[in-house]
Design brief:
This protein is of the alpha/beta class. It has helices at residues 8-20, 24-38, 48-61, 63-80, 85-97, and strands at 99-101, 106-107, 112-113, 118-120, 123-126, 131-132, 137-139, 146-150, 155-156, 161-163, 167-168, 173-174, 179-180, 189-191, 196-197. The chain has a single domain (9-197), classed as 3 Solenoid (UDP N-Acetylglucosamine Acyltransferase, domain 1).
Length: 198
């Protein structure tokens, strides 16, 4: 009879989360491109040097983009088993932009965080093309560590709360200050507290 280590399930869960994290460079480039597009500042980079210059500029002028870079660095370092530095990157994102993205969160490349004051935690996944406005919370309900799954192209309005193990379908729109506790079909628009289809 073999004995399992007490944290074996947790270790296996985090190993699968780390494996799902996108590569740092790919993610940062896609995040920068979508940020440029939404800010009306372009659709592509002229060269690698231009890409680097634009990413540095975006990190300087956009607290949310800087927080994304720090989150991506944290996730990549955790996947590589780097000690201490991931915690520093996480704390910097909180201190500089009030963006807190938990360890079990997986965000696909090409997500736009409009501004700071965003909290994402729990076993959460955010699809490419998602737009997250300020003061958004994507996370847990008491007693359940599984949070929402946002498919591609979901737009979340200012102050919205998405809580628990729900699925928000591709292209759905979440209204400002909505409280979403149930699944949202693809392409639907929901608003209110609790959120209802409009």
């Amino acid at each position: 009879m073999t004995r399992r280590r007490p944290n074996a399930d947790r270790d296996q869960l985090f190993a699968s989360i780390h494996a799902a994290q996108p590569r740092w460079r790919e993610a940062i480039v896609q995040d920068a491109l979508v940020t440029l597009r939404y800010r009306g500042e372009g659709e592509r980079f002229g060269s690698r040097l231009d890409a680097l210059a634009q990413m540095i500029r975006l990190a300087w002028v956009s607290d949310a983009f800087l927080a994304q870079v720090l989150y991506r660095a944290k996730a990549r370092m955790q996947a590589l088993g780097v000690p201490l530095l991931p915690r520093i990157a996480h704390r910097l994102a909180i201190a500089l932009a009030q963006v807190s993205i938990g360890d079990p969160v997986v965000i696909e490349p090409g997500v736009y965080i409009v501004h700071g004051q965003v909290v994402i935690d729990g076993i959460v996944s955010v699809g490419a093309g998602a737009v997250l406005a300020p003061f958004v919370t994507i996370g847990l309900r008491a007693g359940d560590f599984h949070g929402p799954t946002l498919e591609r192209g979901v737009q979340v309005g200012t102050g919205a709360k998405l809580l628990g193990p729900i699925r928000v379908g591709a292209g759905a729109r979440i209204g400002a200050n909505a409280v979403v506790l149930d699944d949202v079909p693809a392409g639907a628009t929901v608003a209110g507290a609790p959120a209802r289809r409009v």
